[in-house]
């Protein structure tokens, strides 16, 4: 019997088949393969081990691996589904899928809620909200007196905490987000509509996808 | 162009390529590419798809050069340039998805007889606007010819294949006939002589040939014998018909100058007397990746603060419950009110676009000044540096005039209400060069806005750029 040589492609640990990921997410197989190219680049920026570490994530967003950002940390923690301190390829694709323009509003609302639920308690408390406002002001070098911050938090709770229990639960958050669609503006990345285009200059030249059958005249 | 049947798959359904384009009739083909009409099955929108052989591009050894041009071209938006929507690839093919232009080729008009001078001038002005716009961004055509000049349904010019000619040009280096695909009639002498050449100068020559044809109805350099035609081009031997005005003849002699060093440049063309007649710079802006025409003249910066109201815009968030009654009386816009979550969403850490492209720089500060004062101050700053101002409710756009590779510097300023007496002013670079933005901020914007800042708040300069994008530029 003849021996067939199959080209082995070396994938990073935590790699999942593009077919499976495409089935479970908003991406096509081609787009998943393109995301793998992006994942490879990010995961080899500092540690070169096929996982995205917190420092690599920060570096991509801020051009600085030491610049810690309260909210980027939150996003990283949510992308790290297994909670093992790194983002694997499957986690990267599944998490980015939430940001796809075709992903439902409800999924985006749920993910945004998880970002703001700092203690993972299933609701957002007044103190958590204040902490996040202060983190943003600090990040932007903006200075507001404590009473102004309290006023802003109070006003928001007045609008969102419908049952006045000093907590915003998932149902209240959903109502609030639907009334204020601007809250979800960061939850959609137009680039994901066609990742092959968005990343074209980097890797259009080395796709490995079979052509659709066309009758070229 | 004769249409061919739909491309079919084995099951004889109309072929769907790249997951969402239904391929239609073939619009044209050359040695290395085919252009199809196609329809986006999701939106129903018509597009043109140019299909190239990837292997040939890889063999050309100019991948980096081609990538750079196309990366820039994807960002180019101009009313007289056929838009490149997407570039996609499979294992063996590269697909350029482009705007489909319905009005046919400009030279279809010339075939019916030469054009009136004013009509020819209008098309030439549009051609030079488009060519100059791309040159300012480092993109050259190098292959301007009749089939690349299309007309839209309003009768305006659309130049196609900008930057893509580099792809086909690099692939045609295996012989003379491939190089010119038939006629060298529009090609500059320095290209024919196979010397190194300047893309901008080559385009100017081709524009000269095109202008001659529009006005005369025939080619300036023509001979049944190709070698004889070459000789005429080398020597720059052409005669203007008697109906050409002296101004036009002078311009053509500068356009069709065989010496690229002394050949007229785009800025010089724009100052030429014949060209300038009836010329208006095309005014447009890009929003949500679409080109919008600015038919009315831009709002001139003025000192009258009470006149800073502007047309409403439904996309602005709903108004706050606490009304700024004084401003209401003046008919001034009120800023959108921010809740705590809105404020949090300003964080750069939430903006994952940095994974895919260079993010615009951003600056924000707090102010207790009335909105009208802030807008007036921005107009004042714009006046000093001769920037154009566009206003819409509590949003102001400042647009520079200096053309760089990334377009003119464009800065968007948006004002939000934090409390009844406090606003947040958000300043973003929308387009243009980073260095130019920083210089403008440091020299003009920050000093000019200093007195409007609330308390001790310092201007927060938030800049970020993804590594991949600095690689890409």
From TrEMBL, chain A:
Keyword Manganese listed: no
Signal peptide: none
Main location: membrane
Key words of the record: Calcium, Membrane, Metal-binding, Repeat
Pfam families: EF-hand_5, EF-hand_7
MF (Gene Ontology): calcium ion binding; kinase binding
Gene Ontology cellular component annotations, sorted alphabetically: membrane
Compartment annotation: Membrane
GO BP annotations, alphabetical order: calcium-mediated signaling
Domain EF-hand: 67-102, 104-139, 148-183
The protein's assembly and partners: Homodimer. Interacts with CIPK.
Annotated function: Acts as a calcium sensor. CBL proteins interact with CIPK serine-threonine protein kinases. Binding of a CBL protein to the regulatory NAF domain of a CIPK protein lead to the activation of the kinase in a calcium-dependent manner.
PANTHER family in the cross-refs: CALCINEURIN B (PTHR23056), CALMODULIN (PTHR23056:SF110)
Family: Belongs to the calcineurin regulatory subunit family.
Protein name according to UniProt: Calcineurin B-like protein
Protein's gene: CBL7
Automatic annotation (TrEMBL), chain B:
Pfam families cross-referenced by the UniProt entry: NAF, Pkinase
Keywords assigned: ATP-binding, Kinase, Manganese, Nucleotide-binding, Serine/threonine-protein kinase, Transferase
GO molecular function, one term: ATP binding
SUPFAM superfamilies tied to this protein: Protein kinase-like (PK-like) (SSF56112)
EC number: 2.7.11.1
Domain of life per record: Eukaryota
Sequence ranges assigned to domain NAF in this UniProt record: 333-357
Signal peptide: none
Catalytic activity from the UniProt record: L-threonyl-[protein] + ATP = O-phospho-L-threonyl-[protein] + ADP + H(+); L-seryl-[protein] + ATP = O-phospho-L-seryl-[protein] + ADP + H(+)
SMART domains per record: S_TKc
Domain Protein kinase: 21-275
Region (Disordered): 293-314
Compositional bias of kind Basic and acidic residues: 293-305
GO biological process: signal transduction
Binding site for ATP: 59
Similarity-based family: Belongs to the protein kinase superfamily. CAMK Ser/Thr protein kinase family. SNF1 subfamily.
PANTHER family from the UniProt entry: CALCIUM/CALMODULIN-DEPENDENT PROTEIN KINASE KINASE-RELATED, CBL-INTERACTING SERINE_THREONINE-PROTEIN KINASE 12
Entry protein name: non-specific serine/threonine protein kinase
């Amino acid at each position: 019997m003849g021996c067939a040589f199959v080209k082995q492609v070396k994938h990073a640990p935590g790699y999942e088949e593009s077919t499976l990921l495409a089935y479970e997410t908003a991406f096509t197989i081609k787009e998943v393969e393109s995301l793998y190219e992006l994942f490879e680049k990010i995961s080899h920026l500092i540690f070169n081990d096929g996982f995205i570490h917190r420092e690599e994530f920060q570096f991509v967003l801020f051009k600085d691996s030491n610049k810690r950002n309260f909210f980027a940390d939150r996003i990283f923690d949510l992308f790290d589904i297994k909670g093992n301190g790194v983002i694997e390829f499957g986690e990267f694709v599944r998490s980015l899928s939430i940001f796809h323009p075709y992903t439902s509003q409800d999924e985006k609302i749920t993910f945004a809620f998880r970002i703001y639920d700092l203690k993972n308690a299933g609701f957002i408390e007044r103190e958590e909200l204040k902490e996040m406002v202060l983190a943003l002001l600090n990040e932007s070098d903006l200075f507001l007196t404590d009473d102004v911050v309290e006023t802003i938090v109070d006003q928001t709770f007045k609008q969102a905490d419908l049952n006045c229990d000093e907590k915003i639960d998932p149902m209240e958050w959903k109502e609030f987000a639907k009334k204020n669609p601007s809250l979800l503006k960061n939850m959609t990345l137009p680039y994901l509509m066609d990742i092959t285009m968005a990343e074209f200059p980097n890797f259009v030249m080395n796709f490995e996808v079979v052509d659709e059958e066309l009758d070229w005249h | 162009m004769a249409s061919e049947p739909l491309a079919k798959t084995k099951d004889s359904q109309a072929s769907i390529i790249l997951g969402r384009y239904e391929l239609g009739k073939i619009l044209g083909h050359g040695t290395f590419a085919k252009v199809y009409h196609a329809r986006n099955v999701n939106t129903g929108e018509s597009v043109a798809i140019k299909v190239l052989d990837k292997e040939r591009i890889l063999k050309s050894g100019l991948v980096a050069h081609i990538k750079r041009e196309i990366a820039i071209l994807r960002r180019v938006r101009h009313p007289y340039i056929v838009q490149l929507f997407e570039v996609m690839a499979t294992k063996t093919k590269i697909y350029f998805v482009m705007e489909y232009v319905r009005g046919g080729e400009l030279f279809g008009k010339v075939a019916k007889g030469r054009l009136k001078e004013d009509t020819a001038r209008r098309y030439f002005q549009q051609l030079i606007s488009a060519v100059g716009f791309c040159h300012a961004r480092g993109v050259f055509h190098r292959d301007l010819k009749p089939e690349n000049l299309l007309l839209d349904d309003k009768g305006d010019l659309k130049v196609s294949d900008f930057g893509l000619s580099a792809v086909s040009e690099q692939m045609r280096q295996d012989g003379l006939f491939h190089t010119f695909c038939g006629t060298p009639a529009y090609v500059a002498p320095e290209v024919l002589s196979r010397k190194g050449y300047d893309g901008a100068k080559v385009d100017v020559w081709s524009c000269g040939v095109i202008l001659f044809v529009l006005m005369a109805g025939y080619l300036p350099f023509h001979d049944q014998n190709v070698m004889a035609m070459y000789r005429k081009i080398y020597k720059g031997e052409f005669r203007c018909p008697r109906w050409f005005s002296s101004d036009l003849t002078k311009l053509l002699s500068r356009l069709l100058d065989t010496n690229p060093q002394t050949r007229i440049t785009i800025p010089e063309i724009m100052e030429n007397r014949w060209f300038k007649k009836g010329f208006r710079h095309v005014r447009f802006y890009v929003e949500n990746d679409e080109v919008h025409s600015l038919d009315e003249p831009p709002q001139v910066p003025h000192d009258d603060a009470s006149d800073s109201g502007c047309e409403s815009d439904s996309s602005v968030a709903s108004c706050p419950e606490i009304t700024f009654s004084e401003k209401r009386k003046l008919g001034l816009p009120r800023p959108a009110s921010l809740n705590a979550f809105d404020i949090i969403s300003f964080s750069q850490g939430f903006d994952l676009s940095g994974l895919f492209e260079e993010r615009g720089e951003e600056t924000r500060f707090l102010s207790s000044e009335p909105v009208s004062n802030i807008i007036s101050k921005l107009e004042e700053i714009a006046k000093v540096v001769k920037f154009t101002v566009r206003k819409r409710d509590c949003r102001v756009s400042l647009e520079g005039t200096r053309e760089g590779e990334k377009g003119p510097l464009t800065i968007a300023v948006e004002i939000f209400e934090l409390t009844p007496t406090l606003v947040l002013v958000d300043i973003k670079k929308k387009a243009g060069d980073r260095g130019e933005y920083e210089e403008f901020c440091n020299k003009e914007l920050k000093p000019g806005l200093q007195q409007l800042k609330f308390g001790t708040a310092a201007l927060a300069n938030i800049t970020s750029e993804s590594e991949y994008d600095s690689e890409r530029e």
